[in-house]
Specification:
It is a single chain. By secondary structure, this protein is α+β, with helices and mostly antiparallel strands. Helices cover 44% and strands 14% of the residues.
Length: 331
């Protein structure tokens, strides 16, 4: 049985972040996180009504043991990204680029205040962009335009090597020979895992394998890589009262082909993607990455369901939808 943090557990780090006069009135664990705990901590004795606490405790990680495998140290850009170090590296770089992220109030990896690495950040008051699309589409357009400007700054920030920003910051080298080869290798692995869990993928495995390899052969080499979030849906964008777009779940920030980001943006923003589109994307990379992304979104949720992730129907729905879409991409 997993034990999550209670208000009393988090009170020490919150007081250290905001001052001893602050009192914790309660804490709510927010739904949806699979690699870290996200808590809204309600306060009294402060002008700040609440803050967010991130906890990277082992109890908060729902991915089955051994899932990260090779590259768990950050060398594999696609290994599940989690931890205080990648969070802080991403926070620093995004702040330097003028991309809005929640203000960092405290980061502590000492485990003296709390039994896990933690960070205390501002609680952005406006909810998610996903929710705003439903409640106020007009206001959401303003935030979407701000997000497009943020993505322009990120995707235009080039590096000669690809890899997660915390890895590159400490002089490390990512696995693989190129982005496109890394995507192919990962897609073939995802295909094998998905085929072992679903008979429809198993039946089409040969055709999917051939299609992936054919698309890879069409992609020409590249020497510069933009900065991407890697998992940027409207649920990973918060909105300030002024309508600014605020990026969250940033631990996977990496230099990579921006086409990988745009494939994901197209999937998650759907008819609203046009506001985020940009010219000059490589159509051959887009074709390869679209199929690889679909297979990742089949294998990943099915892998997560090997553990005790609580929102099981939601994950099954993601896997089922992307399975159908992957098969539809076959010629």
């Amino acid at each position: 049985m997993r034990r999550f943090a209670e208000a009393e557990d988090l009170s020490g780090v919150v007081r250290d972040a905001l001052g001893g006069a602050v009192r914790v009135a309660g804490a709510d664990r927010l739904r949806g996180g699979s690699k870290k705990g996200v808590y809204r901590v309600r306060l009294t004795g402060s002008g700040t009504p609440s803050v967010i606490v991130y906890s990277w405790a082992d109890e908060e990680n729902f991915w089955p043991a051994g899932t990260a495998g090779k590259g768990a140290d950050g060398t594999d850009p696609f290994a599940p990204a989690s931890g205080l170090e990648p969070f802080l590296a991403a926070q620093r770089l995004l702040h330097e680029l003028g991309a809005r992220v929640p203000q960092l109030l405290l980061a502590d990896g000492s485990r003296q205040r709390y039994a896990a690495d933690v960070a205390v950040v501002e609680d952005v008051a406006g909810g998610t962009l996903e929710a705003l699309f439903a409640t106020d589409p007009g206001a959401a357009q303003k935030t979407l335009a701000d997000l497009a400007r943020t993505l322009g700054r990120m995707h235009g920030h080039h590096a000669p090597r690809y890899g997660r920003v915390d890895l590159l910051e400490r002089g490390g080298v990512a696995l693989g020979s190129s982005c496109e080869q890394l995507v192919l290798d990962r897609a073939l692995g995802d295909l094998g895992e998905a085929a072992g869990r679903d008979s429809r993928i198993a039946a089409a495995r040969g055709r999917l394998d051939e299609r992936l390899r054919t698309l890879r052969e069409l992609v020409a080499p590249r020497t510069e890589h933009g900065l991407i979030h890697g998992e940027l849906g409207p649920d990973h964008v918060l909105v300030t009262p002024e309508g600014e777009a605020v990026l969250i779940d940033i631990e996977g920030l990496m230099h990579f082909d921006v086409e990988w980001e745009h494939v994901f943006l197209r999937l998650r923003f759907q008819e609203r993607y046009e506001a985020l589109a940009r010219p000059g994307l490589d159509p051959r990379r887009l074709d390869l990455y679209a199929l690889a992304m679909r297979l990742s979104l089949v294998a990943g949720p099915l892998r997560l369901l090997d553990g005790d992730f609580p929102d099981r129907e939601f994950m099954r729905g993601i896997a089922e939808h992307n399975l159908e879409e992957a098969l539809a991409l076959l010629p």
